[in-house]
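As a warm-up, study this chain.
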Amino acid sequence: MDEQRVSGGLWWRHGPPWWHRRDDAELASRWPWLSTALITVFVLGGSRFAAEQQLERAPLDAFARVLLVVAAGLLLWRRRYPVVVVFGTAAATMLYLGAGYPYGPVFVTFALGCFSAIVAGHRKAAWTALGLLWTGHVLVAHWLYQWLPPSGDDAASWGSEGVVAAWGVAIVALAELARTRREQWVRERVERAQAARRRADEERLRMARELHDVLAHSISVINVQAGVGLALLDSDPEQARTALTTIKAASKEALGEVRQVLDNLRTPGDAPRAPAPGLDRLPELVEQAASAGLTVEIEGEAPKLAPGTDLAAFRIVQEALTNVVRHSGSRHARVHLAHDDGTTLRLRIDDDGPATGADAGGSGNGLAGMRERAAALGGTIEAGPRPDGGFRVLAVLPLTVKENR
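Now compare it with the structure written out below.
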């Protein structure tokens, strides 16, 4: 959540700016010295003013000031021990009222303690403390007042009890609203963090697939041609020179594609400097495969594809042909393209085998990368041995998809 959205009036929905810079552990570890000091000054000053206006109540003395300081001072622990604070402020407030001291800001200390407890999730404790305080006030105001100071005091009206009850309910309602909003902010913050991690993981996997597909194909060609060059270096220098020329071209192309991938990593918001490869570059794949000793036949034509689908289809064919070069004894492969009713692209890559090792058809990152590319578009990949020998890769990709971003 950026600061502009928060400062632009959406803080009520997403939380105030400071909320996104502190977590619960950090807030709990900070002592609210300044706010507690200001509340203490306010409570002492307000109670003194109230005493001047309520001459029928007991005058403020040292014990009254101690109770006020204790009630306000307990708020220093409201983040760490909200349950203790809410019951402590309720007890101090009850003692203050039972001693006949003037009504006034002493209720503010309990209100803040109750608010902190509810926001922290201790709702039962806050409601219990509020109920005990109100019950105690009813007993003092309508029964115990006869034996408590100040002398000659009369019973309070029941209308005033309704005001006190309404005051308490209003505090609890406000605290419940704040708690609900706080939990919503927490959920949204967690969801945003999870979404950011998910996007980062998806981007990392996408780049890993791209680098693997680029390097695996080019290095396979280079490896084959290097073997040819070494074998013919003395007996057929001209053929060895041709192999070295192929190695140079393949390495140059690989460097260019790797540079493009790295440029996208450095500046993810910029448009790519070169268009992404697509099925229109199949002739290049055929030429590269031929330089590695593999004859490739192309059957069918691909329809016009979205850039993401076009890139995925190209990389799937590229990886499948790379696996034929690396893992198959066959020197012949077929690529068949078909599209069903304009909704599905079917890619089939066959070779006649046999496999030259345990990793027939490829394994590890290659097949996993093909499956990830197809799944990202809502398609499927089937890969496995053919009944008559060889290996087949069948990719089914939808032509109209909402690509993952």
